[in-house]
Amino acid sequence: MNSSSARSRGLAGFLDYAPPPHHLRSARHELMSTPCPTRVRYALLGVATANAFLLYLDRICMTTIVHSQSFTRDFGLSDGQVGNVLACGIVAFATDSAGPAIWAISQDIGRAHTAATMPWSNMWGNLGASAVAKWIPLALASPLHRADWSEVFWMCASGFIVLAIVILFVDSTRPLLREGQNMV
């Protein structure tokens, strides 16, 4: 082979005639033997994006409906009470938005045991939700109740504040179990 044809082939010609070092041969073989990724990831990304859009659209529609005259007239809500309904909608939106972050933390600290760490964190969310459901009637029956449901909003918002403070102490670089250690 003459030098002009090797130069015209560029780097591809060099790779044909210069074998990679021994430590790169196994990595190159491994890369060549792995199957190509499927297009399923694009479908999952599309479903997740559509879900986020529907959640956002739901909040926009709720805002429009709550501000309509028929809604406030039928339910007998004042402007302050409409604000509390919207604030509870914000709490619901924050609940939906916190899921991916909790999943990411569960993957970071659970590693191979993510399927066990995610339900564990979900259990704490369900316990908190059931506790708030028991406390709401008590808050509404208290003499401090102002008849505008702001207590409900602050109870839900305080749950997110507690979650934010607790999650600050989670070191996601340190897994729950060491390599080779079993969960039992």
Your description of this structure?
This protein is mostly helical and 184 residues long. Among the domains are: 3-33, no CATH class; 77-167. 76% of the residues lie in helices and 0% in strands. The chain is built from seven helices and no strands. It has helices at residues 3-17, 22-33, 40-66, 69-75, 79-110, 114-141, 150-167. Helix 5 (79-110) runs parallel beside helix 7 and helix 6 (114-141) packs antiparallel against helix 7 (150-167). It starts with a helix and ends in a 17-residue tail after the last helix. The mean pLDDT is 77.
Could you write a compact summary of the structure shown?
With 184 residues, the chain is mostly helical. It is 76% helix and 0% strand. It has seven helices and no strands.
